[in-house]
Amino acid sequence: MHDRPTASELLGAVQAFLEEEIVPATTGRRQFLARVAANCVGMVDREFAAEQEHVERAWTGLDALCGAVAEPQDRRRRAAAVTERLTELCERIRAGDFDEGSKGYESLLAFARGRVRDKLELSNPRLLEADRAREIR
Q1: CB-based contact 82:55 (threshold 8 Å)
Q2: 64 in a domain, yes or no?
């Protein structure tokens, strides 16, 4: 961990530079690519900020669906273990363990909705905001 600027501040500066300086000064394909780059920088920043919460939520959901296992304490190992457990869950889904009407079907749907929500928080938070606004109406 370093002092200032933080990783988030650095990413924010790069994103602002792309959005405020590069995008308006370009056209066509270069402008499109600058927008893509700015969006990628924003996604990385949001992932850094939300990673621990998302991994914890995934771990808890996987424990409920597949059975509890010891959680690695190291951040990288924990993220890799979530990926392994998701692969295991996919195999169980393919095997029919969570078919409609089964005991864990509703829990699986809730878990999948949560994972999609977590992914949208990173990739397109505006879509979630629009969805929330529709729910309020």
Answers
A1: yes
A2: yes
Q: What is the 3-state secondary structure (H, E, C) of the chain?
A: CCCCCCHHHHHHHHHHHHHHHHHHHCCHHHHHHHHHHHHHHHHHHHHHHHHHHHHHHHHHHHHHHHCCCCCCCCHHHHHHHHHHHHHHHHHHHHCCCCCCCCCCHHHHHHHHHHHHHHHHHHHCHHHHHHHHHHHHC
Tally the residues of the chain.
137
Contact 49, 7 (CB under 8 A): no
Cα–Cα distance measured from residue 47 to residue 83, given in angstroms and rounded to the nearest whole number: 16
Domain with 47, as residue range(s), is 7-136
| Total structural domains within the chain | 1
What does the pLDDT look like over 47-98, one tens digit per residue? 999 999 999 999 999 999 999 999 998 988 999 999 999 999 999 999 999 9
